[in-house]
């Protein structure tokens, strides 16, 4: 799985917002983790985790980004949203599958995208309750939808709900960042990554964002 797609200006997206815990998280991470103490100051304070405030777009972008590179995912996403005047579930359901395929989506991802859009249009996702649900419950609800695995659900927790303590261990960008920053580039197991991240709690989302940032020249976003 990839990390999130690169941040670019998207005129079809809602205004970006930052989490209110960001400064506190950065301060505490730098206090308790020697790598974070060196890493966080390298990047402008104006860069932080952002959300578009659109649950359908967040999940759709995550589907696009499954198992392909950040660069490839961004290219496919830009072609996909260009297919509609406003990228909504209703608009996606009006598209021919061939149009989505031409934008670069695999046949399976086309099916996933259409199934996701159907869930939103049919009211099958309890969006009004998400803020009241804990992380594990949100993951369980989302992974019941075809094409949404744990990684995609975790991207939703991070980039839509902006939960502060999410650790997406299936994310290759996170694992690569930990390898380079903490193990001098040596291969890292999930257990080793978890041990490193235990020191990040309760701000694992923020530390993950900086791991992504350390290997990508552009801040990541879904």
Helix content estimate:
40-55%
Overall pLDDT: 89
Uncertain stretches of 5 or more adjacent residues:
1-13
Shape: globular
**Strand fraction:** under 5%
Strand/helix succession: HHHHHHHHHHHH
- Spatial extent as radius of gyration: 17 Å
State the helix count: 12
Largest sheet: none
Structural class: mainly alpha
Distance between the termini: 14 Å
In total, the number of strands is 0
Helix and strand topology:
Layout: H1 22-32, H2 34-39, H3 55-65, H4 70-81, H5 89-94, H6 97-102, H7 107-121, H8 135-142, H9 150-159, H10 172-182, H11 190-198, H12 204-215
Helix pairs in contact: 3-7, 3-9, 8-9, 10-12
How would you characterize this protein structure?
This protein has 222 residues and is mainly alpha-helical. The protein is 53% helix and 0% strand. The chain contains 12 helices and no strands. The chain has helices at 22-32, 34-39, 55-65, 70-81, 89-94, 97-102, 107-121, 135-142, 150-159, 172-182, 190-198, 204-215. α3 packs antiparallel against α7, α3 (55-65) packs across α9 and α8 crosses α9 (150-159).
Kindly list the characteristics that best describe this protein.
222 residues; mainly alpha; 12 helices
Question: What's this model, at a glance?
Answer:
This protein has about 220 residues and is an all-alpha fold. The chain is about 55% helix and about 0% strand.
